[in-house]
Write a structure and sequence with these properties.
By secondary structure, the protein is an alpha+beta fold. The protein is 45% helix and 31% strand. It is built from seven helices and 22 strands. The relative contact order is 0.20.
Length: 486
């Protein structure tokens, strides 16, 4: 049947319905005083079995699911900016480059500082090594010298005692001889005449001994001992002088040697210079690579200009991934009860449709402008393309439930009051209330779990008046169906 014919028959149907309504209205006015049981014209349907999908429809904002802020990895100077805000880029595109001449100067400065510091460090360590060697030499020699001086002094004292003893022994010998001669002289003087010659001889010998005692020099043995004494005294002087030199060397070495703090500070300076140089080398290599796009996307922010000096960790631009797109939505408490992570959704952007999945539901509600609390959620689009524009609205229909081969009726046939859900059915020409238990619903149909059968005639709408339980009704559906048939 063509669209023209279908429209024509629908037009005829509504003319007939209108005529009937007019007749009933006039009949009602004419008979209002005669009877209260006026027939009401209704349209009916029957419950049917089928598959039913429950959707939550909502509008959200298109956003990138991956947004990267690019910060300057090094301090330097911006050379070229190859993009502008809103421009699309491909993964691997050079976005921003650095002024490498400036980076070279920084690297050379760090290198020279390291070379200078390293030379000073090595020279200081070499000098300290010599100082420590001198200190070690002094510490080793001083105890030996002290013992040698002690031993030498003792030895000299022994020589001096031997000399004194030798002198005493020589004098004592002459004294003893004179004492013996004196005794003989005393005996001889008892008869001086007879012993005159012997007395003279003894007196002469005594005078000779006294002269020898007064004028005699050291003996050969004594001279050798005195020479030895002089030699040992000179040796002692050498020991004492060497000791004085070692003490001075020790004092100077201890004053010149690096302390543990100085060594630690020197080593830290050396490490710092090395780290600065290595860091400058690394920065130079990083700067050579420039700022490159990690993925396909759109430049959403650009914070630098060409020729601009820039410090490390300063934000340069923002890139939104166009291969990972999501729609952010806000769910009310009724929709939240249905929506779960992992559910599928259909996203409509302009006339283009995409599939997606619920990937995130916030755990905290926020108040909207009208005072209602909402919970944020995210729908990831499966296969975004160039037709999707970040920042625009998108319609989202989330499939929250799906059932197969269930009894269902049009949504318009369902009524509700404080007692619950119900429908009107026709029984023997009378409208009868039938309480029902419902399940999921779509925009057109709702599932009926209990209360109806497929043979029940369910009142969909009243063509005249208002349906009340117990009122007589006339089913116009058959007539309307006949009109539509060819």
């Amino acid at each position: 049947m063509s669209k023209v014919k279908r429209k024509k028959k629908k037009f005829i149907k509504w003319i007939i319905i209108a005529v009937l309504i007019v007749i009933v209205i006039f009949g009602f006015r004419a008979c209002s005083n005669a009877s209260e049981n006026i027939l009401s014209m209704v349209e009916t349907v029957t419950a049917e079995r089928g598959n039913l999908d429950d959707y939550v429809s909502i509008t959200g904002m298109i956003e990138s699911d991956e947004i990267k802020n690019y910060y300057s990895p090094v301090a330097g100077k911006v050379s070229d900016i190859n993009v502008e805000k809103g421009q699309t880029v491909k993964a691997g595109d050079m976005l921003i480059s650095y002024d490498m001449e400036t980076m070279e100067k920084t690297l050379e400065q760090a290198r020279l500082q390291y070379v200078t510091g390293n030379s000073t460090y090595n020279g200081t360590l070499h000098n300290d090594k010599d100082v420590l060697a001198d200190l070690q030499e002094a510490n080793t020699n001083l105890p030996i010298l002290e013992q040698q001086i002690k031993d030498e002094k003792a030895y000299i004292k022994t020589i001096q005692k031997n000399l004194e003893k030798m002198k005493v022994n020589s004098t004592n010998t002459l004294t003893v001889q004179n004492l013996n001669l004196q005794k003989q002289l005393v005996e001889l003087q008892k008869d001086p005449i007879a012993n005159a010659e012997k007395i003279l001889q003894i007196q002469t010998e005594m005078e000779t001994n006294e002269y020898i005692a007064q004028t005699a020099g050291p003996s050969e043995e004594q001279e050798k001992l005195e020479e030895k004494l002089l030699e040992e005294q000179e040796k002692l002087a050498d020991y004492e002088q060497y000791k004085a030199e070692m003490e001075a060397q020790k004092k100077q070495s201890e004053a010149s040697a690096l302390t543990s703090y100085q060594k630690e500070n020197l080593s830290a300076s050396e490490q710092l210079n090395l780290m600065n140089y290595e860091s400058a080398q690394k920065d130079y290599e990083v700067a050579q690579k420039g700022i490159v796009a990690d993925f396909d996307g759109i430049i959403t922010e650009l914070s630098v200009i060409e020729g601009m000096p820039i410090g490390e960790n300063i934000q340069m631009l923002t890139l939104a991934n166009t291969d990972k797109i999501k729609v952010t939505i806000a769910l009310g408490k009724y929709d939240l009860a249905k929506v779960k992570i992992g559910q599928t959704a259909e996203i409509t952007v302009f006339d283009n449709k995409y599939t997606g999945t619920i990937t995130k539901i916030d755990k905290m509600a926020t108040a909207s402008n009208n005072g209602y609390f909402q919970v944020g959620a995210e729908v990831e689009i499966d296969n975004p393309d160039e037709n999707i524009i970040i920042g625009l609205d998108a319609k989202v229909e989330i499939l929250t439930n799906s059932v197969e081969d269930v009894l269902m009726i049009p949504v318009g046939a369902l009524n509700a009051d404080k007692s619950g859900d119900f429908v009107y059915v026709i029984e023997n020409g009378i409208a009868v209330r039938r309480d029902v238990v419902t399940g999921i619903s779509s925009t057109e149909f709702i599932e009926v779990k209990e209360g109806l059968t497929e043979s029940d005639k369910i009142i969909l709408s009243a063509l005249t008046g208002v349906i009340e339980e117990g009122m007589p009704v006339t089913d116009m559906s058959a007539m309307m169906t006949d009109v539509e048939e060819p």
